[in-house]
Task: structure prediction
Amino acid sequence: MAARRMRGARRITPFPGDAQRAYVETSVWGMTLNNQPRALREPTVQFLRQCASGVFAPYISTVVLGEIALAPLSAATRMVREINRLVPIVLEPSAQSEKLAEAYLRAGVIPAKKQDDARHVAIATVAGLEIVISWNHRHLANDRKRTLFHAVNRLAGYDQPLSIHTPFEVMQ
Result:
């Protein structure tokens, strides 16, 4: 990865074209709230700083915005403020992503009650993103689920690798 060092800077930052394209799932935005555990909030803030500095190019979807809209007003306002600071690219679900999300549900990768979790991964996959960032260990960010998502993706014709990690796992 090409990198540049700015005078007086302590961190090496990538050239803008080298930013890793990352889908930032709803749980990450929720972890920016002051009532969240410091051990999770701090890596989240660090990850979002890396997005702002160009290490990651942030993406979200209208699914993320819909989930945030269901939060209490003060929490939703805070999360939207964080989103607005980064100005991520907002993706819309497509027929292909909805079909892939259904494939995850049929394969039992995600429980039927957690359809939006399947939609997050499907939208990121169809968009060709490299990574999904999530604090959702139960349904997304764990080795077993990564393997299952990859298997369904391959069966559906999506061969590009998609990593799913927590902000802590990708901190640089």
